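Example 3.
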Amino acid sequence: GDAWEVVDDHHLEASYEFPDFETALAFTNDVGELAEAEWHHPDISLSWGEVGIEMWSHEVGGLTRADFVMAARMDRLYAADGE
Amino acid sequence: GDAWEVVDDHHLEASYEFPDFETALAFTNDVGELAEAEWHHPDISLSWGEVGIEMWSHEVGGLTRADFVMAARMDRLYAADGE
C-alpha cells in the first residue's frame, strides 16, 4: 500500500492488500469518507483482499497537489487499519 | 442496472448508475453485504455515480447458477435503493 505510481503522466495508481473481503470493504469506506470530506473522488476497485485506487484531478485532466495529499492520507488510513 | 452481459463465456458484467458518489458507495456496501452473506464475491469498481460489477465462480473458472442468482439480487437491491 505504500507504492503509488504516476501512470502516463496523468494519474496516480496504488493497490492495497487485505486478508479478506470484509477488511477491503472497510478500507473502501474509509477512502470513501475521505473522498467526500475532501470532495476529491478516486476510482476504486474492490475485490477479495485488494483495493485498487486510480486518482487524478478531473478539472485539470491530470495531477495536482490534491492527489498527492490524498495519496498520503490513504496510506495513513491503511496503516491505521492494520494496527 | 438491468443489463447484465455474459462476457467471453466466462463472467457476468453490469454497470449501475447513481446520482453521486455517496449513493454509489451505499450500493457498494449493499452488494458487499450480499457477497458476504452468499459467500460469493464479485469484483466491484466504484467511481463517481457508477458501480461496475464483474462476477464469476472462481471454483469453476466460469459461470454457475450462483452468479445469475446474485445478479438478480443486485438488480433488486438497486431497484430498492432507487425507491
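The two ends of chain B are 14 Å apart (CA to CA). Chain B is about 40% helix and 25% strand.
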